[in-house]
Amino acid sequence: VQLQASGGGLVQAGGDLRLSCGASGGTFSDYEMGWFRQIPGKERELIAAISWSSAYTYYADSGKGRFTISRDNAKNTVYLQMNSLKPEDTAVYYCAAKPPWRGILAQASNYEYWGQGTLVTVSS
Prior knowledge:
Blueprint: E1 2-6, E2 9-12, E3 17-24, E4 32-38, E5 45-50, E6 57-59, E7 67-72, E8 77-82, E9 91-98, E10 113-114, E11 118-123
Parallel strand pairs: 2-11
Antiparallel strand pairs: 1-3, 3-8, 4-5, 4-9, 5-6, 7-8, 9-10, 9-11
């Protein structure tokens, strides 16, 4: 499966942004999806994930209460709604996919398909 992330950009602190990730080359509903981010000099962090049916979601502490992951299997797209953004949310954001049988949602190392990143910059 190929993934294409979009929606990054420059936003002021307190603002909102929605990232999208479109999938092609596979059956989208066969995959669980995650959003990661990487801040320069730091490891890539799993911030949100969603099961194939949307029945289960996972959020890292950094995104709880501010970020919402969702998916539309008919559109082969997963979204990350980010609200109340902070300068420390500045990072390159990546979407990733894994088959359901490949371990739990919340384990970053279980994801095997990656999109290119989209840069989110939050100004203070």
